[in-house]
Amino acid sequence: MTQSHTSTGLAPDQQRDALTADPLRFGVGARLTIAAMSDHYPELILGALQENDPGELRIETGDVSTFIGGAEDELLRYLTGVTATVARTGVHASISLLLSRGCPGEVVCDLPGGAGPREVTPPAGVDVGRYASAEWALYPLADEVHAGVEPDHMRDIYAAIDLAKELGTFRGSVHFVTRLEGDLGRILQTVLAGWVLVGRTVQHVTSHLTVSVNSPSHAHVDI
Amino acid sequence: MTQSHTSTGLAPDQQRDALTADPLRFGVGARLTIAAMSDHYPELILGALQENDPGELRIETGDVSTFIGGAEDELLRYLTGVTATVARTGVHASISLLLSRGCPGEVVCDLPGGAGPREVTPPAGVDVGRYASAEWALYPLADEVHAGVEPDHMRDIYAAIDLAKELGTFRGSVHFVTRLEGDLGRILQTVLAGWVLVGRTVQHVTSHLTVSVNSPSHAHVDI
Asked: pTM score, two decimals?
């Protein structure tokens, strides 16, 4: 058998492994929008972003959202820290989160199908002691068969739902989304881990989450 | 040839046509979150929802978002009215929108694959005289071949992008999303019409939009 080598000197399998091992090249990241419903929103939002150490994550702040690129466990740590800082202010806020992995381009993926999947351990979360309610959508988008692994979207989606039930955050289905409730840190763990679980067999997976903290509707809720 | 008939007395083709003709049975709808960054957010948000006539749309308000079910042109009219009311207050707000059609269930579609697509004319929008910036994701999700029409995701996505360019709202691609800018009404038209365009050949299509209005970053922008 022959193997084709490119100018990198790596065989195709090695190239693929190098690519999936690098979270930024594999397009692992988030877009985060924090909307604090207060006249003091600028200092609340900027404060939450500045008080939490991004470590090795790549951060680009825009007028609609903040892009955060890097490994899944680092993303969960940072997102939990930033949103917990917001929640602890007591101000009602709506937090929108888009997660994506496996498609570092925009309109068209820069990665060919079959470059993934990228398999990582679902990241572990922490309790932050603040209640939140949320609506969650999870989208497996690429259908390439990789290394003999048949994608099975429903199996992976069910695994993500089972994890939400284990973590105690699952509350059921409403139109178009799954409703999550509970500790803010466990909601984020549910969503990041579910996204990674579906990513075991699917290269391109996105997820969207809208979180409500300190809502007047939550006044009666204890966690 | 024989045709199977069910208890409805309709042939399968007629059943499918009746189903795709009914926006609520086909699962056409939106989830809208308005986050007004002001101490007066309750009256701003409820006022915008109450001042605009939902007509025949089904509305269910929750603590994370408001569900709005009904036909695409009615959705565009109502979403434009509500968000324009918010924009006219001058208060900085972040607006999150999820659109879905072709999957009226939640975790699992209640519709079988091949029940669609539903073909409607892309709805026409209006200028509302308020500038907005936005980030847009568009997801064709079902892959069933219907009536000999091969789904062609990239063709339909490009048609949606071309429409954004025609409407003057397209600003380019950033990580994971397409950036739109311009009149708030034309941004919403872009997103609703693009969603309908992809729905010409794909049963289940979702789209997510995050819009910023009255941002301090927009102080220099005229439309």
From this structure: 0.92
